[in-house]
Amino acid sequence: MNGDTPILHRSSLPLRERATYYTMRLLPYIQIRRFVAGVTARGLRVLSDNGADRQAAPDEAANTWLKNLRTQGFTMIDPLLTPKQLDEVNAYLQASDLVAPNGQRFPTGHAPTGVNVASYSLATMLSCPHVWGLMNHPRMLAVAEAFLGCTPTISGARIDWYGAHEGGPCDVQQFHRDYDDWKFLKMFVYLTDVDDDTGPHEYIARSHLGSGRVRAIPYQPEEIAAEYGKDAFTRICGPRGTSFMADTWGIHKGNVPTRAARVMMQIQYSIFPVPVFNYDRVPLALPSGYSKRANRLLVSTC
Description:
The chain is α+β, with helices and mostly antiparallel strands. The chain has a single domain, classed as Sandwich (Jelly Rolls). 29% of the residues lie in helices and 22% in strands. The chain has nine helices and 15 strands. It has helices at residues 15-26, 30-47, 60-71, 83-94, 122-127, 131-135, 138-148, 221-228, 292-295, and strands spanning 8-9, 74-77, 97-99, 105-107, 117-119, 153-162, 184-190, 201-204, 233-236, 243-246, 252-254, 262-270, 277-278, 282-285, 299-301. The strands form five sheets. A six-stranded antiparallel beta sheet has the order 2-10-7-12-6-5. Strands 9-8-11 form a three-stranded antiparallel beta sheet, covered by helices on one side. Strands 1-13 form a two-stranded antiparallel sheet. Helix 3 (60-71) packs across helix 7. The two termini are 17 Å apart.
């Protein structure tokens, strides 16, 4: 069945996608990336954007979030799910299976020994209550469109589980930048309570304004502090429902949970599809009222 796994990296890349990806990797200079993003977004707005897909102008709250994104690289946002909706989301997930990186499936709450990271399949996520409305929340799409300069593409959608353990970090639990597009934005929603012991997201304020590097090696706290200052380290803790957005070109990581598991939803808005992702679309009809362009990578009957 399509969508029976999370959105995963491709095992091999076609020539065009390989060229796109390595061009982005080999051009980690922020001025070039912002220039390319601006030109392509303007071109798409002229050539591809349907007027019906365009969002209303951001309201006062959204403009504050945009200002924070542009200056700090991240922003806290108002919770998008009510307590009742969170209960319904979590009840659905508790009755669903998780998928480990090696493809092993297991019921929520029954992780095999040694498995510390897993995700829900895309089909499970898109069938989960309230997820469609969350991904396509008008305020989120308005912020994403204003940030990117064109109708956003939902190019990533995940609900990830990170188990508590005492072992070393995985790749995303070390400081890094994402290279998913020339410009992109992610929305995060905690589905469990998150404190210092349960794997909080950590973001380096203002690091989105700097250039990256060609080699995909983790950033060390000492070099980050030397460049951005010790006050730039920002851990985001909060009760379930805590929501925020971040430009993850900026340096960030998820900390390792040591006391209890963390479950988090993340939605990515970008200019283009991510060249290294395999979009195994779910055979569902796009719910009425949602943008075909924004959701075209998720379902097969957009």
